[in-house]
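Subject: for your reference before the review

Hello V.,

The reviewers asked for a structural picture of the protein, and I figured it would be easier to keep everything in one thread rather than splitting it across files. Below is the amino acid sequence we used in the manuscript, unchanged from the supplementary table.
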Amino acid sequence: MSKEMTPRERAEHLFRVVTSERFLTKQGLGNEVPFFICPYEAVDGLSMTQDRKALVTRIEHAGVKVLDLSLYDLSLDILRDRGILDEILESEPDMEKGELKELLQGVLDPQTHLIPRIGAAIEATPHDVIFLSGVGEVYPYIRSHNVLNNLQSTAKDRPTVLFFPGSYTHALATGASLDLFGRLHDDKYYRAFNIMNYEV
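And here is what came back from the structure prediction:
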């Protein structure tokens, strides 16, 4: 369904879903966590950023509060707060890619650093739904399935929508998988729903 939608149709669908009572009250999910994936073509990344911001404004005008979080911005905040952002930027040209990846994976570990930061934002900001973006910008230091797995206990009260530059597929043989940029197999993740298939 999502592959056939134009950006405008996708925005209309998201607006209808996110402002619906059924979505906001987590109806039809059984006992599953209220996590949703909004997949989109990686080439639409820049326009998706603008579309998401316009969508947030429109949803809030409809009376639904959105907590709009970027994994990239949160990561920069963590590095700044720990006083190492400038040091990393200076060292990066001379570092091996593997060394930089290992450093950032440790400093930005979802369970230890990122999820508590998201949890603090959830506590501090009244909201009806959470939008998470910036997945492509933080790859490969942060993997989306790790974020979702660690977020389950923190963001279970309100629906969470992860904007994902790639595909989220379900197949009987292989299960569900997040394929970043339509090429990189991020990992199997079973507990989210494709929001583009959500009916209101």
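For the response letter, the relevant points are probably these. The mean pLDDT is 87. Strands lie at 35-40, 66-70, 129-133, 160-171, 175-180, 184-188, 192-194.

Happy to draft the paragraph if you're swamped.

O.
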